[in-house]
Amino acid sequence: MALFKLAASIFLLASSPAYGFTSPTTLITRSKQISNSNNLIYHESFFPSKIATSSSSLSALPISSTISTVDISRTVLGLLLAQKISNSGYKKQSLSKSGAISAFLVASFSLATSFRNGLTLLAFYWTSSKLTRVGSKIKGKLEEGHTEGGERGASQVFACSLIAVLCACVRRILVGNDGPLLSTSVGLLGDQLTLAYVAFFACCAGDTWASELGVLSKSKPRLIIKPWKQVPPGTNGGISFVGLAASAAGGTLMGLIHGVLVPGGIASMLPFNLPPMLGAISSAALKKEVLILSLVGFIGGFGGSLLDSVLGATIQVTYYDDVEEKIVKRSGPNAKRVGGLAFLSNEMVNVVSTALSALIAALTARS
């Protein structure tokens, strides 16, 4: 309970800049200008340092943004939903104890920044958990240590979420509320962090989907750096048509979900008009958001999976046990190295590939 209360306090910080995290882009400066006709004109500036001046009297009072009901509701809902999902994952053995705690933290922080950030993250974990169970008996024969639920630990959870969640928190603090691309006064930074977030999870989904479905391919995979060479299923750096198709599909789905769930997007699809205060965006803006983010997701999933495979084939070692006839995690009397170098672990390879995918996507943003 103490951890829950501590987390709740921190999540409120992430969901609103008011508590010590006042953003220069969300801080509202309101100035009252008295004109000759004594009319009151209110100005809202995103930058408090840029206060309008004139020959008439002018006074400015910086007021930091306050926590809204939506922020509080979203944070509380995020905490409850994250707790439920992490507990469920632990009971179903898709998460270890450390993995469940880690999942609770990253899911809560992500939901605290915006609903679509949290739901995109949860969509990745939900689909990954489901795909892990597909063909579990076959996977158990091909890979050492494979369990039906997957039982991901803290290192795996953080490797597939931490960088993206940090991007979401930075965007919420420095840019403000989540919204469509090019919708803020600091559009470039906001778009860069949004694209990075999508590309990160697209890469994660692409790699996970490719691994979970590609290993079930009836044809033997080929080593990505030596496509003429066939390797055992589950070999790091091995690719197949099934795996590549799965990576493209997984990445595209992440981008599609993030695009459809843009604030105001669902409202714009309703057959009736809503009041402007509810924030519905135009159908054209929704189509643009979905198209761009789906494309980013496709490239992030497909390209990120290829990048992960190249790293896996070169700087991540793979051992194959001739007696057990399966991929094993370390060398032994019957295990031989079939590829790669003992330089990075699987989690470290994931961190590198997802970080590069996020960085490349961020650099493609245009102001």
Would you give an account of this structure?
Helix 7 packs antiparallel against helix 8. The protein is globular, with a radius of gyration of 24 Å. 55% of the residues lie in helices and 12% in strands. The N terminus is likely disordered. The strands form three sheets. Strands 2-1-3 form a three-stranded antiparallel β-sheet, with no helix packed on it. A three-stranded antiparallel β-sheet has the order 5-4-6. The protein is built from twelve helices and nine strands. The chain is an alpha+beta fold and 367 residues long.
Q: In summary, what is this structure?
A:
By secondary structure, this protein is α+β, with helices and mostly antiparallel strands.
Which features does this protein show?
367 residues; alpha+beta; three-stranded antiparallel sheet; 12 helices; 9 strands; 55% helix; 12% strand; disordered N terminus
Helix segment tally: 12
Rounded to an integer, what's the Rg over CA atoms? 24 Å
Mean pLDDT, rounded to whole units?
A: 76
User: How many beta strands in the DSSP annotation?
Assistant: 9
Give me the strand/helix succession: HEEEHHHHHHHEEEHHHEEEH
Secondary-structure blueprint:
Blueprint: H1 2-15, E1 28-34, E2 40-45, E3 58-63, H2 69-91, H3 97-113, H4 115-133, H5 136-142, H6 154-159, H7 162-174, H8 187-214, E4 222-223, E5 226-230, E6 238-239, H9 241-260, H10 265-268, H11 283-314, E7 316-321, E8 326-328, E9 335-342, H12 346-363
Antiparallel strand pairs: 1-2, 1-3, 4-5, 4-6, 7-8, 7-9
